[in-house]
Amino acid sequence: MTGSGEPRSSGGGRLLTFAAWSVLVLGLWLWGREITGVPPSPSAGAAGGSSIPVPGLPVAHAPLAASVPARVDVPSMGIQAPVISRGLDAQGAIEPPPFERPGTVGWWGGGAKPGEAGAALLVGHVDTASKPAVFYGLSSARPGGTVRVVRMDGSVAEFTIDDVRVYERARFDAHRAYGQRVPGRAELRLVTCGGTYDKAAKEYTANVVVSAYLTGTTPPPGPGTGARTGAGGGAGAAVRPGAAA
């Protein structure tokens, strides 16, 4: 990971403005409209250098049937947040979660659903005018960490973090940041603002992008279900959303 982490709120704090959100997701808008169908980039982007596979990470689990996300849990950061679908506004930027709901995560409803093949995108505020928000600690994520997405069908998609990058907006490449790394794999991106806060411009200088891929799942509740299946296909103890990794 390169670049600095998000600055801590102090004094009057800072508000993640709509303008900052527009810059954050402008590349996503361009990717969604122009990059779809283009072969994926094999690496994470110029701002953070090449994405190098981390030894010892589990193999990928087969993609799941599509289901809308309901909650995201990141045990190492204490995140247990509801997820709501967000679309694009008139300017072509994704609508951020409402400012009055800083603990809520937005899922780009025009893209892949977490767990199905493709790169699903979850976005969250880094802070508010007075306190840290849901993705405040995102830049402290490390490869090997766990992200769990509880889905509307009752299943839990478990992802393993394999890459954490801070992309300077001046050199931002949406294809490399958001594009699928491995064809056919179920992937996840967690995105927020980062770098330093420019008081004059009233925006952050970078984007924090945490990349993860599907490595396990807990089936929906029902007769004979509840056993976790990992990348190797075997069953293990049931995964409780929000339980320590």
Written account of the structure:
One of its GO terms (molecular function) is hydrolase activity. This protein has 245 residues and is mainly β. The chain has a single domain, classed as Sortase, Chain: A (Beta Barrel). Strands 1-2-3-4-7-8-6-5 form an 8-stranded mixed barrel. It starts with 17 loop residues before the first helix and ends in a 9-residue tail after the last strand. The N terminus and C terminus are likely disordered.
- What is the CATH-assigned architecture? Beta Barrel
Q: How large is the share of residues in beta strands?
A: 25-35%
Identify the strand order in the major beta sheet.
1-2-3-4-7-8-6-5
Helix content: under 10%
Give the class-level CATH name.
Mainly Beta
Shape: globular
Query: What is the CATH topology assignment?
Result: Sortase, Chain: A
N- to C-terminal separation? 22 Å
Number of strand elements: 10
Which stretches are poorly predicted, pLDDT < 50 over at least 5 residues? Answer: 1-20, 29-52, 233-245
How many discrete domains? Answer: 1
How many helices? The count is 2
Q: Mean pLDDT, rounded to whole units?
A: 76
Largest sheet: 8 strands, mixed, barrel
- Which class of secondary structure composition applies to the elements? mainly beta
Radius of gyration from CA coordinates: 17 Å
Write the H/E string, N to C: HEEEEEEHEEEE
CATH level 4 superfamily: Sortase
